[in-house]
Write a structure and sequence with these properties.
Blueprint: H1 3-7, H2 10-16, E1 22-23, E2 26-27, E3 32-33, E4 38-42, E5 49-54, H3 58-75, H4 80-96, H5 98-109, H6 113-133, E6 140-142, E7 149-157, E8 160-164, H7 172-183, E9 187-191, H8 197-213, E10 221-224, H9 228-235, E11 242-246, H10 249-261, E12 265-269, E13 274-278, H11 284-296, E14 306-312, H12 316-327, H13 348-363, E15 367-370, E16 389-392, E17 408-414, H14 418-426, E18 430-431, E19 433-437, H15 441-448, E20 457-460, E21 472-473, E22 476-477, E23 484-485, E24 494-502
Parallel strand pairs: 1-5, 8-9, 8-11, 9-10, 11-12, 13-14, 13-19, 14-17, 16-17, 19-20
Antiparallel strand pairs: 2-3, 4-5, 6-7, 7-24, 15-16, 18-22, 21-23
The structure holds 2-aminohexanedioic acid.
The site of 2-aminohexanedioic acid has 11 residues, from loops.
């Protein structure tokens, strides 16, 4: 164990979460399967090996799928509020384990400890949400056009839900999916990111205990581990009616096409290119923390991270100086140290992409206001720490149109009316999150109207990241169109059925059709 791990209590956290040096990466609940190949999980915090996870073999994948399909048949017969009770117990276990799990998230993924805890809090919150939902999976009755007939719409459990998650929210995104899927009567197979596999082992240990205490069968919660080939087994598998995938647009394009080819459903939550519009009446007290947290929080590795500031020319210099000034206060360092704001990027590949993006922005004519670069020296040996950069750029630059998962913020000007800023905000291929800072009611309403932001999330006087679980989360265009978490996102985890019942003694046909025999 490294000094960092020892001094920040990681060792103890790993022990509480049941993480060993080598962990089986395949599980159907309380049964675990080991393959020969392993994925080594190195911490971007200090570059040290945290532990290994075995890769799922084809044979073990089959065992998982057999177990999951069998479990579904039992699980769907359990009344939804009782399934909610399982989720309630899971949420309580997460409350008990918030500290160690938050620490593991921070150490394995590199986000600040506060954000690690915040991520576990999102899991707890979605459990609470799902428990309430377990008594509200309501259908509806619909008036029939025929006498003596009634129409209904009801929601049935769907089956095995395949979850593919990204490294940046290594536990919360799984929980958004599973908590809802379980109350809906589905069972889940989760392929975690190979960049944060230990988080999947920890979560599986937690839920496995709850399932055992409730005498539930194997297969309700399964994990598999490995690279994209393991994901492909799921996307091609007709036994999985729904694939929920979070990650890059590149990945989503492949997954979406494969799943559609076999008429499966997919829920895609892909890249964002999120902007904040800063209008003349914007309050700097709100703008600065909103923009800075949005851009540098999670080291710019949220799909909701703020990538672009679209600032009215009349306030441009003032806003620019305030943001640049705030960047001078940012402390980069070990994310487990609560005085630090920005931790490392996930790995050296991410560092290379960050450096490359800065070079591209410069080559396209960008004016660097805060020079980025790799942080070197004591405490930064992992080579994954980078400085948040600010570049004045134009919206049409190829690199600005592209999502770079790193703390690079592009500043650009708009002139005239808010519509011009909205056009710029919408002028990218992605459509996840967006925000406007204004005290003008008309500007705010225009931004939220049908001709306003084209994103799945549109905020007024808050930043682009940090959405609450109660709303549907996801976005349009290349973000993939999926919605998960709150509102009525649960419907994607169920199948809709329309029923018409005739309680008359006649058989009138719909549309007034006569068919006399
Ligand atoms: C993600 O980056 O994939 O809104 C999810 C947010 C978080 C979730 C981000 N609640 O920033």
């Amino acid at each position: 164990m490294s000094t960092v791990a020892t001094s920040f209590g990681i060792e103890e956290a790993l022990q509480k979460l049941g993480i060993k040096e080598v962990n089986p990466g395949t599980s159907t609940g309380n049964k675990w399967f080991s393959g020969e190949d392993t994925i080594a999980s190195y911490s971007p915090v200090d570059g040290k090996l945290i532990g290994k996870v075995t890769v799922t073999t084809k044979e073990d994948y089959e065992k998982v799928m057999e177990s999951a399909t069998a479990a579904f048949k039992t699980f769907r017969t359990i009344p939804a509020p009782q399934r909610g009770e399982i989720v309630r117990q899971f949420g309580n276990k997460l409350r008990e384990l918030k500290e160690p799990l938050g620490k593991l998230v921070s150490y394995e993924m590199g986000k600040s400890l506060q954000e690690g805890y915040g991520e576990v809090q999102e899991m707890i919150d979605i459990c609470d949400f799902a428990v309430g939902l377990s008594r509200q999976l309501n259908g509806q009755t619909i008036p029939s056009e025929r006498p003596g007939h009634v129409m209904r719409e009801q929601w049935h459990s769907l089956g095995v839900v395949g979850i593919i998650s990204a490294f940046n929210f290594p536990v919360a995104v799984w929980a958004w999916n599973t908590a809802l899927a379980w109350v809906c009567g589905d069972v889940c197979v989760w392929k975690a990111s190979e960049k944060a596999p230990l988080c999947s082992v920890a979560c599986q240990n937690i839920i496995a205990g709850v399932l055992k205490e409730n005498n539930l069968p194997e297969g309700i919660s399964c994990i598999i581990n490995g690279d994209y080939k393991i994901g492909e087994m799921m996307t091609n598998d007709t036994r999985i009616p729904l694939i929920s995938a979070t990650g890059s647009t590149r990945m989503g394009r492949i997954v979406g096409a494969k799943v559609a080819e076999r008429f499966g459903k997919s829920l895609l939550e892909l890249g964002g290119n999120n902007a904040i519009i800063i209008t003349p009446t914007a309050d700097l007290k709100v703008v600065v923390p909103g923009a800075v947290f949005g851009a540098v929080g999670t080291a710019g590795q949220r799909c909701t991270s703020t990538r672009r500031l679209i600032i009215h020319e009349s306030v441009y210099n003032k806003v620019r100086d305030a943001i640049v000034g705030a960047y001078a206060q940012i402390k980069i360092g070990n994310p487990l140290d609560e005085t630090k704001h920005v931790g490392p990027l996930i790995d050296k590949d991410a560092v290379a992409m960050y450096l490359n993006a800065i070079e591209k922005a410069k080559a396209e004519g960008g004016n660097v206001l805060i020079e980025g670069g790799v942080v070197k020296g004591e405490g930064f040996e992992s080579g994954c720490y980078v400085k948040p950069a600010i570049i004045e750029a134009k919206n049409h630059y190829e690199i600005v149109q592209h999502e770079t998962f790193a703390p690079i913020l592009y500043l650009m000007k708009y002139s005239g009316e808010v519509e011009n800023a909205i056009d710029m905000q919408n002028g990218v291929a992605q459509g996840l999150s967006s925000a406007i800072m204004t005290n003008e009611m008309k500007e705010a309403e225009k931004f939220l109207s049908y001709s306003g932001s084209d994103c799945g999330i549109a905020n007024v006087n808050i930043g682009t990241s940090g959405a609450e679980i109660g709303g549907a989360f996801g976005g349009e265009k290349e973000t993939g169109g999926g919605r998960e978490s709150g509102s009525d996102a649960w419907k994607v985890y169920m199948r809709r059925q329309t029923n018409t019942v005739n309680y008359s003694d006649e058989l009138p046909l719909a549309q007034g059709i006569k068919f006399d025999l």
